[in-house]
Design a protein that fits this description.
The protein is an all-alpha fold and 113 residues long. It is built from four helices and no strands.
Length: 113
Amino acid sequence: MSNSTASLPDDPALLKAMIAALQAENEKMSASLRAHDLLVQALRVRIAKLQKQTFGANSEKIEREIEQLELALEDLQVAVPGSPKARRANVANSIRVTAARTVVGICGSSGRT
């Protein structure tokens, strides 16, 4: 047996509680990753849509918006170092910051509020 299994309790009730806690933590991490993936996908779709519109009188505004969205996408794609808890917190924070930047970039460059 490895050292990690030697330190586990022998009580089945405690083991079940540990498993339940790990499963709950896994679900939270999965939800954060799904939200991250959805935001990345939405940004990619928005960038592709804007790249098709980069002509005409509003092309400079669209180009600025594309740059903002590409920066937001880069922020989301950067690997997050640290423990699983730190990564989860950083991913959640990155999602919030990127979403805020995206909204500001879209509203600021399109003139909509």
